[in-house]
Amino acid sequence: MYPALWVVMSSFRPGTALHSEQLIPHSFTLEHYRTLFDKYPFAQWFANTLKVSFFTMIFSTIIVTLTGYVFSRFRFKGRKKIMLGLLVIGMFPGFMSMIAVYILLLQLKLLDTHMALIVVYSAGASMGYLYVKSFFDTIPSSLIDAAKIDGASHWTIFVKIMLPLSKPMLVFIALTSFSSGFVDFIFANMVLTDDDKLTLAVGLFKMVKIKFATEFTLFAAGCVLVAVPITLLFVFLQRFLIEGLTAGAEKG
């Protein structure tokens, strides 16, 4: 926790130096936070990042839960080969495909748009199907069979039985997909060029890449503001995670 606490304290420390003799500053200032919004389009970067992360979270959660349900409850030809293929592809680093993705986005005229980030982030969500499939596998088949006897379709089973019993899994998927879109730098830096469309990670990097040593406290203030939405989301969703785990224990 010490490095994180150092960054937080540095954001309130007067001056711009990276070095300090004490963790807690003698005096506190909000000047660095004001500078972020006065001299840089930080509010616009923040809104851009929230938009990309929110839609990525929605689409990724939908895609990965549907994929996990299909592999958990359906039996079809080539199922195991597709699962193995997704696992193998998921082992390769994402940057290996960046040039190909860049060319595709160029042909689709999606470069320098937030839609490009949302599409790419969400499209890769199905690679994380294994965690969802394993969770769905733990739900008793007797519940599914009883619903089928009552005439429920697969969509009804998925929405009214599987999802309500999967709160911990849904919370985990939502948190990871939101945070991954919120903090990604490499791909966002490759796609976005317009200053008004930058995300926080790219904006902060371009803001301090030349004079990091002279504006460390300003960078620290930006880092603190980046952490706020993720922390609030975790605190809010933690209640649902605990409720889902408690309900599962009581049911067991």
UniProtKB/TrEMBL annotation:
Domain ABC transmembrane type-1 residues, every copy: 46-237
Family annotation (SUPFAM superfamilies): MetI-like
InterPro entries in alphabetical order: BP-dep_ABC_trans_perm, MetI-like, MetI-like_sf
Pfam families cross-referenced by the UniProt entry: BPD_transp_1
A GO MF label: ABC-type maltose transporter activity
Gene Ontology BP, a term: maltodextrin transmembrane transport
Record's keyword terms, sorted: Cell membrane, Membrane, Transmembrane, Transmembrane helix, Transport
Residue ranges of the TM segments: 52-71, 83-108, 114-132, 170-192, 212-237
Keyword Transmembrane helix appears in the UniProt entry: yes
Gene Ontology terms: cellular component: plasma membrane
Compartment list: Cell membrane
Record's keyword annotation contains Lyase: no
Subcellular location, principal: membrane
Family, per entry: Belongs to the binding-protein-dependent transport system permease family.
Protein name from the UniProt record: Sugar ABC transporter permease
Lineage, highest ranks first: Bacteria, Bacillati, Bacillota, Bacilli, Bacillales
